[in-house]
Design brief:
By secondary structure, this protein is α+β, with helices and mostly antiparallel strands. The chain has helices at about 15-35, 45-65, 70-75, and strands at about 5-10, 10-15. The protein has three helices and two strands, in the order E-E-H-H-H. Strands 1-2 form a two-stranded antiparallel ribbon. It is flat, with a radius of gyration of 18 Å.
Length: about 80
């Protein structure tokens, strides 16, 4: 497994591939939201953003199917 090391002042933080993927995913989502809000639609990662929206919808549907209604009632 590849390990990336970055210096944070005097401390060293070791990031695994999984951590790097999570950081990348978060940064990607924030960039897509910023592009949407600013109307820069030509720069959006349309295919992957559509996939993520579909995945969120599927996950929500599965939660509803499990009877987890309290999450939706409190909204």
């Amino acid at each position: 497994m590849e390990i990336a090391v970055k210096q944070l002042s005097n401390d060293t933080e070791i990031l695994s591939d999984a951590n790097l993927a999570s950081i990348y995913y978060y940064a990607w989502t924030q960039l897509q939201a910023k592009l949407l809000r600013s109307g820069q639609l030509q720069l959006i990662d349309i295919y992957n953003l559509a996939e993520e929206i579909e995945d969120i919808g599927r996950a929500e549907r599965l939660e509803l199917g499990k009877g987890n209604w309290t999450r939706y009632i409190s909204r």
